[in-house]
Design a protein that fits this description.
This protein has twelve helices and no strands. The chain is mostly helical. The chain has one domain. α1 packs antiparallel against α9, α2 runs antiparallel to α8 and α3 packs across α8. The protein is globular.
């Protein structure tokens, strides 16, 4: 029974990542924020591995886990944060990264010989249209730099190939040790960001501590484990379709927390996203 609610819980948790970043980023630079979060992630996972007496990974498994970590955590998170820091609108970032379900389905057919039906293809494009409608009301394309677009596409490539790599090479790995090594690998991206990025003092205000705590426990631990579990249990195209629901849920959260307005086009887009996910993930699709 609980398994039926895993995708819903994942979407709700994953969507709060943007809210948590909005609360926490004013108090630290991008590199510092991601590095501190990652060190905290590793500490939590090491504690869980010790308490739950998890098995060790083989050298080959560690290598595969670290490649996944470089893609899903390093390239995706680093790309998104770097794009936003470079001045790209959050809405445009959402659209670019929102190409993931389509990109994943295409690559899954080419690389993993996955079968995607006509109805699923139609639903994937419908979801993309819905995603564009959700963010179009607040979309501002002025002063978008090439660097910012590049970082956004790095994030798209990272989360897409990371999901496929996880599906192909990391099956049946113990989740806790595997994800821990993923975070270790992501430091290869985040530490250079700390060393080369603009330095600013970290302000250990209550809001920063709370947002960091939530991003570590809610996102990096619970949501990430749910994503790894879903990828292991299902096919890549269906799992990534749930990412279409993240921007609409984030928009609702921003409306509730920050009083950001919801345009009629955004509401229609949310309905299209929900319909898309239903068609892609239903059993007889």
């Amino acid at each position: 029974m609980f398994k039926k609610f895993i995708p819903l819980i994942f979407v709700l948790l994953w969507s709060t990542g943007f809210i948590g970043a909005k609360f926490g980023l004013p108090y630290a630079s991008t590199g510092d924020f991601l590095a501190i979060r990652t060190f905290a992630n590793i500490a939590v996972f090491l504690l869980l591995i010790f308490l739950l007496k998890q098995p060790r990974l083989t050298v080959q498994q560690i290598g595969h886990a670290m490649v996944t970590g470089l893609l899903i955590h390093g390239a995706y998170l680093g790309g998104v944060f770097a794009a936003i820091e470079a001045g790209i609108p959050a809405g445009l970032t959402a659209i670019i990264v929102g190409l993931q379900p389509l990109f994943t389905a295409m690559l899954a057919m080419l690389l993993l010989k996955a079968v995607v039906s006509r109805a699923q293809w139609l639903a994937l494009f419908l979801g993309l249209a819905g995603l564009i409608l959700v963010v179009s009301a607040s979309l501002d394309l002025t002063d978008v730099s090439v660097d910012a677009l590049f970082f956004a596409f790095v994030a798209l490539v990272g989360i897409t190939f990371g999901t496929l790599y996880q599906k192909q090479f990391c099956q049946k790995q113990p989740l806790l040790p595997a994800v821990c090594w993923q975070y270790v690998a992501s430091l290869l991206v985040f530490i250079p960001l700390v060393l080369t990025g603009e330095s600013q003092p970290i302000q250990w205000q209550l809001e920063f501590v709370l947002s960091l705590t939530w991003l570590v426990l809610g996102l990096s631990v619970v949501a990430m484990l749910l994503l790894m579990y879903m990828v292991e249990q299902g096919d890549a195209a269906k799992v990534t379709a749930y990412f279409y629901l993240v921007p609409p849920v984030t928009a609702i959260e921003a409306w509730l927390l920050f009083d950001e307005q919801l345009a009629l086009s955004s509401i229609i887009g949310m309905m299209l996203c929900a319909l898309s996910v239903y068609v892609v993930t239903k059993k007889n699709a």
